[in-house]
Amino acid sequence: MQFGYEATTLKVALRPGDIISVRRRGFLSWLIRRCERSKGEEPSWASHSAMIVSVEPTVLLAESLAKTVIRPLVAAYSGSRAMLVAHRLPELAEGQIAQVVSCAEEYVGRDYGWMKVAAHALDALLGGVYLFRRLCRLQAYPICSWVVAFAYEKGAGLKFGADADVATPDDIMDWCQVEARLVWADSAGTLDSAKRCYGGQ
Known about the structure:
The protein has eight helices and seven strands; from the N terminus they run βαβαβββαβααααβα. The longest helix is centred in the last third of the chain and has 13 residues, at 144-156.
């Protein structure tokens, strides 16, 4: 297990296609974690999802913010109060990984789907039913989990326990706990936080 944002560490630890789960602080992130939590489920850890798309010459990730962008991981998160972990599906072939990354890159430049966040929240208020999200399926306005979920669904035929247009950062991280390998965390404290949330797994 590698820790930290040192360039050599990141290049050794991370590969294209690795899934980044982020736990941010603040009210909005707390609200996201609250809304993505299923009835009877333990508290969620992740409030944001991203994906590594390159490690040369620097580690770059694709993520949906105000727009979907590709930006350096170190510049984006080093020194921030966010906590990050990375998971990898080791059984994927190189061609599949390249296709997944290509699918994620297709979203670059698209505006963030704020209405989809509202739809997730409304469905959560109704106990997690798939109603409002069904009305907001246009991929022209992605949210963070869509960039990861649709890239893996279209590029490798994989789902994170839910259809891509329903998947949340929590769904993605829950699935990764079982099906993927944890390859990196930004700190030992972050790793401990994630392990506590998942019962020490």
